[in-house]
């Protein structure tokens, strides 16, 4: 298991090019199951989760060919409708095979993902939606087994909770259903919109994306196409927080400020000077005082849970008290005890973290528990006095491309050490 060794105490300054969004790339890659024709994808990030998605496609019978650093061609037809436990256990987003496999082949045997560090994360909405579209779904030996007679049938689905991958699974499945599917209380996340735009390039007939009421009119088949994955708004936000907490100045290029209003306005409230262009965001924190900000996570367009750990760190080192409330996942504060070990003064009260003044952070040996917790600990290492060792960084490799390279270019002292 690799670790990061980080020397702290330097402002992070410079430019960084943002990669394609993990959470857009994964549903798009797995939705290629829906077509027999070639698909070319660009701006695909080189991440562990992306490799896992390609493995899932290859198991299904598809062929994946890398064209350049971030472009891939996916060809072939699905001949096997299994998403095995060995892969699903390493990546929850494997559940995104369920809708496409059921719609395309009438059969899907997808291992139940189970809980993870941040919460129980059930998939009842995915299953219930498919049942409403006519699938017969059984849970057997740890697998979701979906069977469809002939073809899924469009229907009116009200989703009890806003679920990002739940919406993505049902939208993907509905593209090949007979008739019209209406999804109410759908997720509005930019990654859902990216998936819909991709499906439209393959000939899907969808409207309402970006709202909570999406309509999909099923077509007989989808054709091939070429698509560029949107920039990663969470990677962008992570670098902006790194600039803010280190008193530095970072410009994120090839990103999309339009999808980041909640995060940018909180960074401004925290005292940062933020400048946005069409495809860049620059955050300057030099000679400015960091102020605490209260945040509450909620579905888009509200503040994203995937930026919560980074803002918990921001509040931990700001002068004054900031309250972070997590409403999406029941256990997403695993970074708090680790930050406290580095000198933070954060108290957990129910689903809130009360971040009070501390006397700065000092380097320590800490454990990454999930993807965004890892990001907050790595950034904490850059601002702490002395050396920080972050253990279990495989979490980070799931979602951040070339992370050491990117931080090093900003002046960060970080090296990967094999155990
Ligand atoms: C690959 C991907 O895109 N992952 C993102 C996706 O995860 P994911 O799609 O798994 O998260 P959801 O939006 O589904 O989860 C939201 C809430 O709904 C609950 N729920 C969800 C489905 C369901 O069938 N039943 C149920 O109760 C979950 O436990 C959670 O409490 O959205 C999350 C919320 O923005 C992000 O943190 C993840 O980074
Ligand atoms: C929680 C995340 O991812 P996943 O849903 O893949 O676990 C994340 O991207 O922060």
UniProtKB/TrEMBL annotation:
Residues given in the record as UDP-N-acetyl-alpha-D-glucosamine binding sites: 92, 306, 328
KW rRNA processing (keyword) present: no
EC number of the protein: 2.5.1.7
Gene behind the chain: murA
Active-site positions on this chain: 116 (proton donor)
Classification via InterPro entries: Enolpyruvate_Tfrase_dom, Enolpyruvate_Tfrase_sf, MurA_subfamily, RNA3'P_cycl/enolpyr_Trfase_a/b, UDP_GlcNAc_COvinyl_MurA
Name the UniProt record assigns to this protein: UDP-N-acetylglucosamine 1-carboxyvinyltransferase
Subcellular location: Cytoplasm
